[in-house]
Amino acid sequence: MANPANKGIVYYSAEAYNQINDYLNSNKPSKVFILVDENTHELCLSKFLAKLKDASDFEIIEIPAGEENKNLETCSGVWSALSELGADRKSLLINVGGGVVTDLGGFVASTFKRGIEYINVPTSLLSMVDASVGGKTGVDLGNLKNQIGVINYPEMVIIDSEYLNTLPKNEMRSGLAEILKHGLIKSEDYWHRVSNLANLELQDLDAIIKESVDIKTEVVTKDPFEKNIRKTLNYGHTLGHAIESYFLTHESKTTLLHGEAVAAGMVLATFISKKLKNFPEQKLEQISSKIFDIYGRIEVDQNDIASIIDLMKFDKKNERGNVNFVLLKDIGEPEIDCLVANDIIYEAFDFYQEA
């Protein structure tokens, strides 16, 4: 569904809790359910509940943490729990967690009894600046990312950066990758500001989160169903998702966080942009150097590349059998629906390994 004017609004800090308390008081859902994973149940739930005026009757549903649990089997468990606990069409689901919880919880709510209302409370940097904004919900199909889902906006999104104090450094870096992406597709000024956040200090991060959310919100408002400009938000994701999927299911590989895979995908996409769109070589070197400094380098050998390329055919941006890339003519100048030959992709991996 398209975004109604009063849905999906992002609220911050103290105002956010005032908004959710006002919502609960005025809408009076028949039952309120909170979806958490085992980590946010332990680290975030009590803080969230303490901000609510009356949470005495709320039901808590816990799912296992991790991308490997973002699937229809987990959805089935949550649907069953909702049913057994007496959820009806006037119930509300509040998703407290990272991107797995908000993506899966949004999909569960959008499909249970043909749709109940939900609210997102993202607790990771990645979900704050990406997963919880724009109404995308969904789960993976096997190792294929986000193949099943709908676009359906939450009642609201609550962002409180204090939850970031619970995150390990690698999860903060994972979220930073999406902020870096926003810089590359938006403006050189924003790229330079956010590319110097590698120390990930929480001070000043509130303003960066808000600006990143504003960038994504502006794009999805213009193109809610990803027909054109919203595709630019997938910069680095065509190869990034394929790399993430490949590493998820090969025992010899270490499972990657989403942002780690997207960071590699952005280096690859920027090299391809130089080859096909004359992206400035000096800026390619600066971007790749910055990303390598923050994320290091993923080990990919020649035998992996063919399988990774094969996985790209499942990318949701593809049309008529073509793999569509987002490329850059320059920082802040993205171009969508670009076709890339396999030999250029192999060249990009050579650059990634050797740069």
Automatic annotation (TrEMBL):
One of its GO terms (molecular function) is 3-dehydroquinate synthase activity. Its EC number is 4.2.3.4. PANTHER family: 3-DEHYDROQUINATE SYNTHASE. Keywords: Cobalt, Lyase, Metal-binding, NAD, Nucleotide-binding, Zinc. Catalyzes the conversion of 3-deoxy-D-arabino-heptulosonate 7-phosphate (DAHP) to dehydroquinate (DHQ). It comes from the Bacteria. InterPro entries: Dehydroquinate_synthase, DHQ_synth_AroB, DHQ_synth_fam, DHQS/DOIS_N, DHQS_C. Its cofactor is Co(2+); NAD(+). Residues 61-173 form the 3-dehydroquinate synthase N-terminal domain. Residues 175-318 form the 3-dehydroquinate synthase C-terminal domain. Coiled coil: none annotated. This is 3-dehydroquinate synthase. The keyword RNA-binding does not apply.
